[in-house]
Amino acid sequence: MHYLILFVLLPACILVVVTGETATFSFSPPVGSGSGSAYTLSGEGRVTAIRVWERYNYYIYGIQIRHGFIWSSVAGYSYGTLLEIELREDEAIIQISGKYAHYLRYLIFTTNQGRTLYAGQPYGHSFNMYPEHPQAELLFISGRHHGALTAIAGHWGTPGSIADNGTGH
Fold this sequence. Notes:
- This protein is mainly beta.
- 11% of the residues lie in helices and 50% in strands.
């Protein structure tokens, strides 16, 4: 019996030592009605800034993410009031919350340093997204838009890992 345990546990221990990391990727399922065209805002490296376009007392019209020094395309439209947070060194997005009806109405991005970006108006059903692992952070977002944003999902992990997110992004 001891030999059986040895032969089962030894390869698992060697695998952990060889890879030197644990899986930290997690996914927050999309919230919102989900109508319209799909989007994915991803890039290489850490998220370094986020832009959100809102129309006062209306919807979240567009969103854009910067990885390193490169901005993604805009999901939705760059229409309305532009709000932006530029992350400091060693700062990361660790939570996305907000409200939705048919469209996303309110978004809050929170960092590990306690800073927040608020956009939109607090109306509708509440949601809260965060990583499953304490060392993880926002890697990219996905969702749907039909004019304004109709859905958002969070993809979390540790940047620079061998398999950042398991999806090849």
